[in-house]
Amino acid sequence: MRRNIIAGNWKMNYNLSETEDLISKLVSGLKDEKLNCDVIICPPFTSLSLASSLTKSSNIKVGAQNLYFEDNGAFTGEISASMILGAGCEYVIIGHSERRTIFAENDEIINKKIKKALSSNLKPIFCVGETLEERESGITKEIIKRQVVNGLKDITEKNLENIILAYEPVWAIGTGKTASPEQAQDVHNFIRGIISNIYSKSSAEKLIIQYGGSVKPDNAKELLSQDDIDGALVGGACLKAESFIAIIKAS
Length: 251
Ligand code: PEP
Description:
Layout: E1 4-9, H1 16-30, E2 37-42, H2 48-54, E3 60-64, H3 81-86, E4 91-94, H4 97-102, H5 107-119, E5 123-128, H6 132-136, H7 140-151, H8 157-160, E6 164-167, H9 181-198, H10 201-206, E7 208-212, H11 217-224, E8 231-234, H12 241-249
Parallel strand pairs: 1-2, 1-8, 2-3, 3-4, 4-5, 5-6, 6-7, 7-8
Helix pairs in contact: 1-12, 5-7, 7-9, 11-12
The chain binds phosphoenolpyruvate.
């Protein structure tokens, strides 16, 4: 039985005082709740230490939004896995479509980042998803298969247990257009089949596959009730305590 995971990707939003404000609302809003899911927040790098200390005795875990695959050195502007770990994180988002498109990250880079996260005891939230053009050309599954297979290259079945996969159709991210529950379920089921082929049926059954793309309080329940959807990666709606809590409670 898989337990849903709801993760909030804050993207490039919120300074320290805004971080404190949102987290204090989340901590107090969730403290007496018996949750049916795990909750992760992924603030910007500058807020990670603060977020970790503010969530210390709560039911909220912290993740970063990216890492670089080298340990240290002349990589101006980059952040290593051990720095993220030192800031109190347990998770890290890897391969978000904004990293793939705006920052030109390809499958090979993403694979290196996933491996670095795993070898550093960070759990990757590994994102895959097709563009609108790819969906309209009928190659969604081909794209997803390529991203999943290449992203997981040389990753052992044991290590797979520490990976969360997130299916995020690019056309649904930040656009207000959500994949229908049936469209999302179809791709999630397809991903589980790929995992079953690469690894085993039991690993595929255990893998958490989140859906991401304009998840809101009013569509969360229907999406999360699909057999192969095990939580959500939430962008816009995680920036307000009220809407993020409503999504968590819909789980
Ligand atoms: C995201 O950035 O991962 C995301 C799903 O964003 P939004 O919920 O705003 O579509």
